[in-house]
Amino acid sequence: MLENPVYIVLLPLKNFCKKTEKNQQIFRNNFQEIHSSIDAMSDEVKTHNCGQSAGKTAINEYEKWFLAGVIEGEGSFCASVKRQLNCHHKIQIDPEFFIYQHKVRRGLLELAQKVFAIGRIRPKGGNPNVLVYKVTRTEEIVKIIIPFLEKYMIYSYRKNDIEKFKQVAQICYDNKHLSKEQLIQLINIAYSMNMNG
Predict the structure, then answer these.
(1) What pairing do the DSSP bridges indicate for beta strands 75-83 and 120-124?
(2) Cβ contact 42:58 at 8 Å
(3) 33-39 long-range contacts, Cβ below 8 Å, gap at least 24?
(4) Distance of CA 145 to CAs 107, 112, 151, 188, 190, Å?
(5) How many CB atoms are closer than 10 A to CB 130?
(6) CB neighbours (10 Å) of residue 93?
(7) Distance (Å, rounded) from C-alpha 134 to C-alpha 76?
(8) What tens digit of pLDDT does each residue of 106-146 get?
(9) How far apart are the first and last CA of the chain?
């Protein structure tokens, strides 16, 4: 079985070849030539993730771009502001990342879990027909989610919110105990996010 998705485009060409030995040989020669060109052009993609096979790596790249589209439409990156009496200023701010889907499309959330290798899938509170993929650990958001957003969502309409999300996450990650000034700064950023829906 051929692993590289590009071959799926090439295989229908075989249907145009007449079932003669001569034409079959022509097809094989041309197929091998195209195969070699693909190998030469896709070295960067094949070596993107060390330790994985070339075919698997290429497919994962497509999956990541696809996942970016899912996040653009169904993802949520926000900063939650909660009253927490045991915190220094009685307020806690946490960056949170979610993707929502109806339960029949659970596979999309499992794709996110596969790509990121973190996060949980749970029913949404009050609506068991909707599932939520969530990542709420600040360290995982800073080290895994944000690098993904920066690379694969470069064409996103929500780039301003992504930048604010990154800013909140980095400040929270770098400062175990927020100063009053930092807290005010984060609250202002949090309430300025997702203004376009």
Answers:
(1) unpaired
(2) yes
(3) 34/10, 35/7, 38/4, 38/6
(4) 19, 10, 10, 22, 18
(5) 13
(6) 23
(7) 9
(8) 999 999 999 999 999 999 989 999 999 999 999 999 999 99
(9) 44
CA-nearest of 94, 95, 93, 76 to 194 is 76
Q: Where are the alpha helices (DSSP H) in the chain?
A: 6-10, 21-41, 43-46, 54-74, 106-116, 138-140, 146-152, 159-174, 180-190
Q: Quickly tell me which residue has 């195969």 as its tokens.
A: 35
Q: The tokens of 183 are what?
A: 């807290």
Region class of 51: left (phi > 0), else alpha (psi between -120 and 50), else beta: left
- 155-195 pLDDT tens trace: 999 999 999 999 999 999 998 778 888 888 998 998 888 76
Give the side-chain half-sphere CA count within 13 A for 3.
Answer: 11
Phi-psi region of 92 (alpha: psi -120 to 50; beta: other; left: phi over 0): beta
